[in-house]
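Record format v2
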Amino acid sequence: MKKGLLGSNIADFLAYFLFVLVIIIFYVIFSWGGDKVSYKINSEAGYTDTGLLLLNVLRTPYDAKSNVADLLVNSVSQKNFKEFEQMVNPIFTDYFSSNFDDCCWKLTIWQQGKKLDELRSSVCDNTQSEELQHSVKLPLVNPKEPVIDVTLSLFRKGTVGSMEGGYEQVVQCAYKK
Amino acid sequence: MKKKGFVFNLSLVMVTLIVLISLFLVLQGKKSKVEPIGSRQFELTEAYQKGENVRFFVEQSAKYSLSQAIYDLSQNGGFSESGACSSYAGYQVWLSDKKCFPNYQEELTNRFQLLLARYLLIYGAELPLEYSSSVKSSQPLTLVSSANSAVVINIVSKELAAKKYTDQGLRDKSKSMVAPKVVQKNDKDLMPKIFNLYESSIMRATLNYPNIKHSLIAGVIAQESKGDPFAVGGCGVGLTQFELGTAKAYSKIFQKLPQSCKDSCNPKCDISTDDRLNPDKSIAASVLYYNDLIGIFGKYTDKVKFAIAAYNGGPTVIRKAIDATKKSNPSWEEVSSSIRPEFITSVSSESRKIWKIGVIQDYVNKVSSYQQDYELLEASAKEQQYEQEKSKFGTKVKTHDCCICKQTCGDDCAVFPVDAAVACGPWSIGKGLSCDMKFCTYTPKSLSTYEIRPSFTLSIDYNLDIYKQIIETITKNEGIIDQVKKCQNPGENGKKTLLKECVDSAMRLAQSKDFAWKTETDCDTPREMVLNSFVENYQMCAESNDDQCVCEFSMDIGKSNNPDGTYDVVIRQQDGMTEFVPDDALPIPKVDLSYSTYYFISNDKISKPLKDKLIRYSIRYKKGVFSTASIDIPDQGISQISKNIHIFKKGSQMAVMNDEYYNTYFTSVKKCNVSKRVYRFCVEKLNNGIPEKITAVNPISAKVGPLEIAYRFALAFPKP
């Protein structure tokens, strides 16, 4: 029996096997070709809910004839937001405290880039983190006046992001578990 | 090991090393990407949320529009625009030979749709403006309405956050910018208002027209409409006051224009869905028009000023004035002083032509002045923006300079999407960034579309059949008509009563616990009293059976609660239509009179018909009592102070004069026999003695809030 190139047939076989394996690895690596992807989960938790919540609050009936949005429009025309704040503050406080942990919110009323009023959760601190915003346009009784923009902003209170199972978990407003 | 084996072994090691190095390099070269799980679902929900925002805006707008429509309708005799039997002193006539009662359900939906379209125009996105509405029930008033077309919302991939490069992204970004405080020559609030409201539109409209400065368009907006997108002038409409003829030349932008009107100077043109009321379109068209005008005068140094003048006076006038200077490159000052009356063809009389020359010269000065104010604002805004960019990105601003977007929106832009777009805009031109930039106009990849067709049912605590009840009170047996007829025709006792007494007594009978009937000056605000009294006297004179006679009337119409002193009433005569307008352009309805107005030139010679002319009556009162009236004809330099107003009537001609003129030349002329036969009414619906109210805007006082609903109309009785 003839000896192999590497001294034995087994050594030859192993060498060929190793070579083919390297080629296959090489092929697989190049054929995958995608970018390095890491996943973050639910980075916009509360995002969509909050936008719709804002609309729901504005649609809430205030009395037999008007809703919260009408109350706001009235407040803007009278430049007195006291009644509006008294109405809206408990709704948000209740919603956020019962649904989220560590969540701060801020409601701002704008007209042409000018801030008219601001309401915020009592624990909120401006410096804590980036915010997510939802803005809703609201017409005034007089259509010649510029529309009002009502913006609901969410803040992360401190850092609640963590690494779990190789996934980066960044949560703006964490849902209550 | 054999030599061959060694070589083979070495080759294998080498190949393996090459593969590993390649692998390392490939992995290093691959980009790191973080993908949020469920992002597609969020995109779907976000599209849904945008749809809900649209619905919410439409619902709120519809609610306010319905309240306003109810109020407006009552103020306008149940009609949305002009009534079927013309109008009288601002009141729609309900009854003359024909019975011209309003079809109030149809009129309400018309008015509602017009008002709703005005709201939707200001939303800032393409919302359907046309709705089909119908009244489902009159009590409580229930209106069902649905849009004729759908709103299409793109479900956009958030990859690279590319949406921030879109038109809307830019609009939102520039909307969040606030005009800085800069010392202004003109009205200090006007240019910041225009900056805040329209800078983003101007920015987009001028993207492909680098020779059109933002400040030029802003100056035109300030001068033409003071930034009011719904402004309606003598002939122009909208933000940049395009006249119908010029607008038709830009029909690619203005797709919806009043078709039935020959010219927009006709106040009866229906402009309810006119594209000129759309601020974006008005701005885009004015940019194109200026681009064309600057092209016409392109070879002259003062081409922009020529274009401004041509925007007001027409390019032919300016072209002729340039030729008249006989210079190859005249300045605006030279051209301005070369405009001659014969160049002006838009008006006929000499005096009017001279007046128009002054208007063109003044127009150029005013637009240029507004332009300077706006440039100051822009410069300051750029500084402010640059500082913000710098504080946010530090040195990034320099490396990540504005030139990136000159080519494509590459990766760098994606890193700082919004700010890259802004850095590429004109904001960053200054302090070392001096690129001639264009915006990235990357269109985001749309995954799919979400379509909604807004529709709603509105119910309001109001009884629309109140019109039916009022009409019944007028027409029923022993109603107002019967009462008046009875006392006009001598009965058994053969006594004929004066029409006024009949009307007064019929009105007293109509009073009930549910309705309060009022007539004449009780219905009018003090301001309207002045105008209506004047118009009424004018019309009575016009309708007199006598001819070659003089009507005389005093403006001493009683006390007024208005504390501020004087009013001006302007008569404008255009194409057989006499329009009475208060000096401050309050929306008093126009009055139809087919008489031409004249004034005296000397002795008994009267002027040519006052077509396109103005006669200004200044009616003054002091300490609550109307006292004197002065007659001014501005382009003739005539100003006549008078206690009474006299009108000489001859055929279809009416010539106005003051006391002095009358006493000198006309005392021997017979007086016209005038009789009043049209009465104005207003009716208030009472709830436990309190007039019914609705939240609306009072167009006269601009007051917003719960306003009393007063149903105003006029009844015309046959001559006794």
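The longest helix of chain B spans residues 350-393.
Chain B has a mean pLDDT of 73.
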